[in-house]
Prior knowledge:
Layout (H helix, E strand, L loop, with lengths): L4 E6 L3 E6 L10 H16 L5 E6 L4 E3 L4 H5 L7 E2 L3 E2 L11 E5 L2 E3 L1 H8 L2 E5 L3 E3 L13 H8 L2 H10 L3 E2 H6 L5 E3 L4 H13 L3 H12 L6 H15 L3 H11 L10
Parallel strand pairs: 2-3, 3-7, 4-8, 7-9, 8-10, 9-12
Antiparallel strand pairs: 1-2, 5-6, 10-11
Helix pairs in contact: 4-5, 8-9
Amino acid sequence: MTDAVLIERKGAHVALVTINRPEARNAVNGAVAEALERIVAEIEADGDIRVAVLTGTGGKVFSAGADLKEVSAGNRDKLERPGTGFGGFVNNPRTKPWIAAVEGLALAGGCELALACDMIVASEDGAFGLPEVTRGLLAAAGGAYRLPRVIPRAIAIEMILTADRLPAQRAAALGMVNHLAPSGEVVSTAIALAEKIAGNAPLAVIESLKIAKLSLELTDAELACLSDETQERLSTTEDFKEGPLAFIEKRAPVWKGR
């Protein structure tokens, strides 16, 4: 039996996570949800992995969302994991950066998986869509509230209520997509971005990401206080000393993550 989700190491510090159901357009079933939940935990616990890339196999569809065959068979509850949400991913607490490598279409829950990541790399001919309203459903796995955070509210509302697809090139122009890549080069582009991030001090990356995620939830005063507290905590680490020392010695820093 083929694994529903694959994980492999790319270089020293990057993990490539691939939803592996091309016959079902990489739709999420119980096996995918269970595997993604487990893999997130494994990556969080692995001190060598600093960045993860999430993609789908086949090159045409990142993910079509929920497996409707599972839903019609009464197994909808298996697509959501307690505490981590749809696909075992969209509400799963993660401290390390995740990049969605969207080759082709990201629809419904597939779009929500991408929105749950911290960055998106998409193919130039790709598109995003939340077609839930055409089936009497709500984009309840984050689409209805995460999309208006990353593109202008009026455009997000139109997309959610009409179910029209958003071409990747327009998504990039609106700020939803970090990088566009030719078809077939999305994963390699995402890995290159991941490796660039992984070359930086891992603790500083994690703490910076944490504050950036809170930027829409806290006041400037609260964020300033949190930033000061975080900087003070980082100043006691070995990596905090290594950064300036490597600069003075004109060499690449050797990060220890402590």
